[in-house]
Amino acid sequence: MTTLVLGGARSGKSAHAEGLLTADDATYVATARVDPADTEWQARIAAHVARRPPGWRTVEPPDLPGYLTTAHGPVLVDDVATWLTSVMDDHHAWDGDLGGVRRECDRLVASVADCRAELVLVSSEVGLGVVPATRSGRLFRDQLGTLNAGLAEVCASVSLLVAGLPLRLR
């Protein structure tokens, strides 16, 4: 079963997604890159780690779509938005050349559709707020919205977290 959990900043989406996996041996797929100079970001990551059950293992695969094609057991990916940020960085796409980004997003959607593991994906919903003031912000918002829609299409269950409350969309 594949589940997509969407939500805004501080909506409770990660904690909700973690609660969907009851196994003591789940795999947590971390997508955030650690910046040694950013202590606030490190503290956020540490809070996520502290909240997880002790038997969960953490992986940081360099190729998320490739990892999902062979994943087994319960798997939580947190989160798709930070994965997309890294993909956009890697493809130097912030000025609008999205060819490589779209190919990677298509690979991710295909790998989720084919994934045999119990899979929970967390992603940010960024389409409900103010239109970003910068071109790169609008580019990211649009790309993430398209990716979220593609993931929702292939996931059996989709929820939106608002103010800590899950709304089941499918």
Architecture overview:
The structure is a single chain. The protein is α/β, with parallel strands linked by helices. The chain has one domain: P-loop containing nucleotide triphosphate hydrolases (Rossmann fold), CATH 3.40.50.300. 44% of the residues lie in helices and 21% in strands. The protein contains six helices and seven strands, in the order βαβαβαβααβαββ. The protein has a seven-stranded mixed beta sheet, sandwiched between helices. Helix 4 packs across helix 6. The model has no long low-confidence stretch (mean pLDDT 93).
Shape: globular
Strand segment tally:
7
Under CATH, the topology can be stated as Rossmann fold
Largest beta-sheet details: 7 strands, mixed
Report how far the terminal alpha carbons are from each other: 13 Å
**With helices defined by DSSP (H or I, 4 residues minimum), what is the helix count?**
6
The CATH H-level superfamily is P-loop containing nucleotide triphosphate hydrolases
Helical fraction equals: 40-55%
Record the strand order, biggest sheet.
3-2-4-5-1-6-7
CATH architecture: 3-Layer(aba) Sandwich
Question: What is the averaged pLDDT score?
Answer: 93
Quickly list its features.
170 residues; alpha/beta; Rossmann fold; seven-stranded mixed sheet; 6 helices; globular
